[in-house]
Specification:
The chain is built from 17 helices and no strands. It is mainly α.
């Protein structure tokens, strides 16, 4: 079963590597580098200004470390066909899941290392901790995360719901307690507590796995949900075959659609607006990037940095929104509409223009209220609206025409 998991993991890794080049593109890396630089600069200045009796700093440090424990799930890589073809090997699946657990600890451990490293300056500035106490705190979190992954494996078996809920509550209580002990009392004292709790979890999980059959349906469903989250993130950068976006009714947005005139020339304007408002693929993308960009601008007071961030996020939103042009290319009915193709191009331009101007307006309000250099802030705001025009009328037009030619 170990070899079976390794072969499946190899295929999964090959599949993910195909998308990696789209995720780690120049635009994304540039935004990440600038964002990290801006955050680091602001965070270092913030640490210098907080007093030692700043109690909220301890609370925030403990809270973020505990929340980081929830990052990462066991990659079972279970498929629907396994419930039939692998059923005779059900009792041996525990070895398969053990291998999956061991292979799934890398990402959570890396995240915990980063979060703990980020929180240490805050904890050192507001408590009696030293930077060398990073190691016992990190080891404690690693042990607790291992227990969390064990519970996830045990949750895949039948008749374990009540026990899992009880053990999960104990694990959460132990996580909060050990972090409080590490920060407020003694850094190394939380580690033995975590080891004891995880030892209990191991014994109970092993008993649940040995005494109960595997819940194939739950295992398949949980893995499908895990992969959907991964593909949803990848879908922000490129199309993922077979990934269907969620559609929501959103009646509260109907007044916006009612403003569109019900006439032949507004056919594609209505269709694209409807897709954008009801679908989560495009509206969710715009919402997430707008929120992230706004938060960065709020926590930064650097003129040049804020200018670069706002310009980059407007560009990313416009760049990622243009593929909505091909949303109806493979629908036969739209090919039969007595509507000129130029109206389709105009409708997309109008939608992208409205979105970019709205985002630019939000960023402008933040820039003007946040930056001390009001003249510089106004100049950046003007640049954002000029950028929106260029992306919509010049760059957008050329790219949409290329998309049209590639379709035909």
């Amino acid at each position: 079963m170990k070899e079976f998991y390794l072969k499946r993991q190899q295929k999964h890794r090959q599949s993910m590597m195909k998308y990696l080049k789209y995720i780690l593109n120049d635009h994304f890396l540039l935004v990440m580098l600038i964002s990290m630089g801006g955050f680091g600069l602001y965070y270092s200045e913030f640490i210098k200004t907080i007093p030692e009796d700043f109690v909220l700093g301890k609370v925030v440090g403990i809270l973020f470390c505990v929340l980081a424990l929830f990052v990462g799930k066991v990659a079972t890589l279970i498929k629907e066909a396994d419930s039939i073809f692998v059923l005779p090997k059900e009792r041996q699946m525990i070895h398969y899941f053990k291998e999956g657990l061991l292979r799934s600890i890398v990402l959570p451990f890396v995240v915990l290392t980063l979060v703990t490293g980020i929180m240490m300056p805050l904890l050192v500035a507001t408590s009696s901790l030293e930077f060398t106490d990073f190691y016992p705190i990190l080891l404690t979190l690693w042990v607790l995360k291992l227990g969390h992954l064990m519970l996830q494996v045990a949750n895949l078996y039948l008749n374990t719901d009540k026990s899992i809920k009880l053990m999960s509550f104990i694990w959460l209580a132990a996580s909060v307690t050990t972090m409080v002990v590490n920060v407020l009392i003694m850094p190394w004292l939380g580690l033995p507590i975590a080891i004891i709790v995880v030892g209990i979890i191991y014994v109970q999980s092993k008993k649940m796995v040995e005494d109960n059959p595997l819940d194939w349906e739950k295992a398949i469903t949980l893995e499908r949900k895990r992969m959907k989250k991964i593909y949803s993130f990848i879908n922000l950068f490129t199309d993922v075959p077979g990934l269907s976006s969620n559609i929501k009714r959103r009646r509260y947005l109907d007044p916006i659609l009612q403003k569109i005139k019900k006439e032949q020339g507004q056919t594609y304007t209505y269709l694209y607006s409807r897709v954008f408002l009801r679908g989560t693929e495009y509206s969710g993308l715009v919402l997430r990037l707008t929120i992230i960009g706004s938060l960065i601008l709020i926590f930064s007071d650097q003129l040049i940095l804020n200018g670069i961030i706002s310009v980059l996020f407007v560009y990313l939103i416009g760049f990622q929104l243009l593929p909505i042009y091909g949303e109806f290319d493979y629908m036969l009915m739209t090919q039969l509409y007595p509507v000129k193709n130029e109206m389709k191009l105009k409708a997309v331009q109008q939608l992208v223009g409205v979105v970019l101007v709205s985002v630019s307006l939000i960023f402008s309000l933040i820039l003007v209220s946040r930056l001390e250099d009001k003249l510089g802030a106004v100049a950046i705001c003007g640049g954002l609206f000029v950028e929106s025009f260029i992306l919509t009328k010049i760059y957008g037009t050329k790219r949409l025409k290329k998309m049209e030619k590639s379709f035909f």
